[in-house]
Design brief:
about 375 residues, alpha/beta, Rossmann fold, 6-stranded mixed beta sheet, about 20% strand, elongated, disordered N terminus
């Protein structure tokens, strides 16, 4: 009799467990960034932002359509390479992810966006700023930062009106991001009445810039703008000092990282570098951002580089759309995601326009003092 009772109790437990499992929905969130290569520190920063958001969502016990959601992160490395980026995108599609956060670079984000669009999978980039990303008509593409038209144009105007640059030189790394932001910077300089005395280019893996810097030195620029990433900007700053070039050095979000002083090997003078992050918070919002950075450092023993907070917000915006739609199925929550309005994140208020761009995106201007980033102003 006791044996039969044990069997019955065991069967009930199994059925209860099965019922509980049936009340759980697994939500797969893909993340893609360069976690290998020269800018791996930026890709890992982004991935950790995603992990933090996923862990917190699971701890909260988020419900979607009456079922407890179990969020899983599927992280892929694109090494900042477009071909590897599309391969990573296809792998996530084949894994039937519910949504994707990424990629980091415009050069990988844009080709990958076609793959996600064809599969009907929503994609939010936390850092791709090339305007083309949201202008291809892909209704699955969103971003939570301002684009290069705003970022590059604002920096170009700033170089003329605030830095008082009289002779401005431009260098880009020929990537979708680097060339794009440099083009917009140049337009901004000219629109503000400034003069561009030279335009040179390199690539995103270069380490020797003596030829292009020597060419520009002869034109005596007082401002040099670089469209590219910090892994190239650091050595470029070292070589500028070696050549005796004392110009201000400007750039976009790609150089505006916590790692730049180390990459420049201590050769940066205070206030020499001026850069902009494609995002920013003001007033009371600063407390939320500082709290995030403190929590991030406590958990991972690392400083936030640039975009971990934007990844964190992107994951939460996507999850909020799923909750509101009552479904994690891409086709069902995508229309809700597109109508996101007034979502309060650690990076500020997030609302999307009809292209998938963030409305009224902010920029934060930074310089460096004593080997650390120092905020100058938030502009819109």
């Amino acid at each position: 009799m006791q044996i039969k009772l044990n069997v019955v109790v065991g069967a009930i437990a199994l059925l209860s467990g099965a019922a509980a499992m049936s009340q759980e929905v697994v939500v797969k969130i893909g993340h893609v960034g360069p976690t290998s290569g020269a800018i791996a520190h930026l890709g890992k920063d982004n991935e950790l932002g995603a992990r933090m958001a996923i862990n917190e969502l699971n701890a909260k016990g988020v419900m979607i359509g009456g079922k407890k959601a179990k969020f899983e992160l599927l992280a892929e490395d694109d090494a900042g390479d477009p071909k590897q980026g599309t391969a990573a995108a296809q792998k996530l599609v084949d894994s039937k992810v519910n949504g994707v956060i990424g990629h980091l670079n415009s050069g990988t984000t844009i080709p990958a966006s076609k793959i996600y669009f064809d599969a009907g999978i929503p994609q939010i980039s936390p850092s791709a700023t090339n305007p083309k990303f949201t202008r291809n008509g892909y209704k699955t593409a969103f971003r939570v930062v301002a684009d290069d038209v705003h970022l590059g144009g604002t920096l170009g105007k700033y170089a003329v009106t605030q830095v008082k640059g009289k002779s401005i030189a431009v260098i880009d790394d020929r990537t979708a991001y680097g060339q794009g932001v440099a083009d917009e910077f140049e337009k901004g300089v000219k629109a503000a009445g400034g003069k561009v005395v030279g335009r040179e280019f390199t690539n995103d893996k270069a380490t020797d810039f003596s030829a292009i810097l020597t060419s520009l030195k002869g034109k005596k620029p007082d401002v040099i703008f670089f469209g590219g990433m910090d892994a190239v900007a650091g050595p470029m700053l070292r070589q500028m000092k070696q050549l005796g070039i004392v110009a201000k050095f400007m750039g976009g979000d790609g150089i505006c990282t916590a790692a730049l002083p180390e990459l420049a090997a201590g050769t940066m003078a205070d206030d020499q570098v001026i850069c902009a992050e494609a995002g920013g918070v003001e007033g009371a919002g600063k407390k939320d951002m500082e709290a995030f950075k403190a929590k991030f450092k406590e958990q991972y023993k690392l400083e936030v580089q640039v975009y971990a907070p934007y990844v964190y917000d992107a994951v939460n915006v996507m999850a909020a759309a799923m909750v509101k739609a009552g479904s994690a199925e891409p086709a069902k929550y995508l229309p809700v995601l597109a109508k996101t309005e007034g979502f309060k994140g650690v990076t500020g208020v997030i609302s999307f326009d009809n292209k998938g761009d963030i409305k009224n995106g902010a920029l934060t201007m930074y310089t460096y003092k004593g080997g650390a980033r120092s905020e100058m102003a938030v502009v819109r």
